[in-house]
Write a structure and sequence with these properties.
Blueprint: H1 17-26, H2 30-49, H3 57-82, H4 90-108, H5 111-134, H6 140-159, E1 164-166, H7 169-177, H8 180-197, H9 200-210, H10 212-217, H11 222-248, E2 250-252, H12 259-269, H13 284-301, H14 306-323
Antiparallel strand pairs: 1-2
Length: 337
């Protein structure tokens, strides 16, 4: 009789690097751990690199001031990112809003009017950006690139040759230390969390970001959702303009510069995709802002030049976006993490 054949053992599949990264990204614990792990790693690296100087109270105070500005903008921008749009003009909007507010203050010496002008200016500028996209059917990123140059040029012309407009130092200190920053930021953050996670508006934004075609088939208005996302962002940028001015008691042509990159980096470091989708959230920005502020401060403390800092942040951003983006070949949807 013919001898029974011994079954050939199957070769064990060895996961590739890409597959291993995909498994990690798909873990439900990844989004919870990633932002805190990145913050802890950066703090540890710079604490060692600076011989413990990174833990000084003055450093943490400066870090927190940066984080509040970046985090306020990033919290608002999460509404824009969630439905798949991208706007990098945040810094120029903040700079122009701050310039207009300070000019009104120098003319009237009215603090309340200065704050109101900054917030209303930011709302108007973001509404204009949105209108150019919704009405004229220009992609938001294209609009952002163009208006960044326009708003920056207007700010430079208004500020003039000195490059700086100062405000009363006592007024800046009273706003900085009088509780306005903390109370206004807390109220704005709570407002964004409630609107994004507990109302129909947030659900529609996430649905549009996950699958725009399906969302529109259910009757969701992309135009309405886009206007809401830009106006919420404008409110945050207006508040951040106030924080920026009171932080240094002045506005300059450099106010808001590089903020667009900081906001995008804070978003991905906070665990959210800039491509939007169902797993977007409104709290990633503040977590990422702490990490970005720690990164900026730490690099300066170890003597890295500003040019190198921009390059390092750009590389980190590209790596995180690569880790944070995955698109299925057969389904018209956005998938992240």
């Amino acid at each position: 009789m013919e001898a029974a054949k011994t079954p050939t053992p199957k070769k064990e599949h060895v996961l590739s690097l890409g597959e291993r990264i995909s498994v990690i990204r798909q873990s439900r614990y990844f989004l919870m751990v990633f932002p805190f792990a990145m913050l802890a790693i950066i703090i540890l690296i710079f604490t060692v690199a600076t011989g413990g100087q990174f833990f000084r109270m003055s450093v943490f105070s400066s870090l927190f001031s940066q984080a509040v500005i970046i985090g306020t903008c990033a919290t608002g921008v999460s509404f824009i990112y969630s439905n798949g749009n991208l706007d990098i003009s945040i810094g120029s909007v903040l700079g122009l809003a701050a310039t207009l507010g300070v000019m009104v203050f120098t003319a009237t010496n009215n603090v309340v009017l200065m704050i109101a002008v900054m917030i209303l200016s930011a709302l108007a500028l973001m509404a204009f950006n949105c209108t150019m996209s919704v009405v004229c059917h220009i992609k938001t990123i294209t609009v952002a690139i163009v208006v960044t140059q326009i708003y920056g040029a207007i700010s430079t012309l208004l500020i003039g040759g000195t490059g700086t407009i100062d405000i009363d130092y006592n007024v800046a200190v009273s706003l900085e230390d009088g509780g306005f920053r903390y109370v206004s930021f807390a109220l704005y953050f709570i407002f964004c969390i409630v609107l994004y996670h507990f109302t129909r508006v947030g659900r529609e934004l996430r649905f549009l970001g996950g699958n725009e075609n399906c969302a529109q088939q259910t009757g969701i208005s992309n135009s309405r959702a886009t206007y809401i996302s830009f106006l919420v962002t404008g409110l945050g940028v207006g508040l951040a303009a106030v924080y920026s001015v009171t932080n240094v008691a002045a506005v300059s042509v450099e106010t808001g510069s590089n903020l667009g990159m900081d906001v995008m980096l804070a978003t991905v470091l906070g665990g959210m995709s800039i491509f939007g989708g169902a797993r977007s959230n409104a709290y990633a920005g503040i977590l990422g802002a702490l990490t970005v502020a720690a990164l900026n401060t730490g690099l300066l403390m170890v003597g890295v030049s500003s040019a190198w800092i921009q390059g390092i942040r750009g590389i980190i951003f590209l790596i995180l976006v690569w880790m944070n983006s995955e698109r299925l070949a057969l389904l018209p949807s956005r998938v992240q993490f």
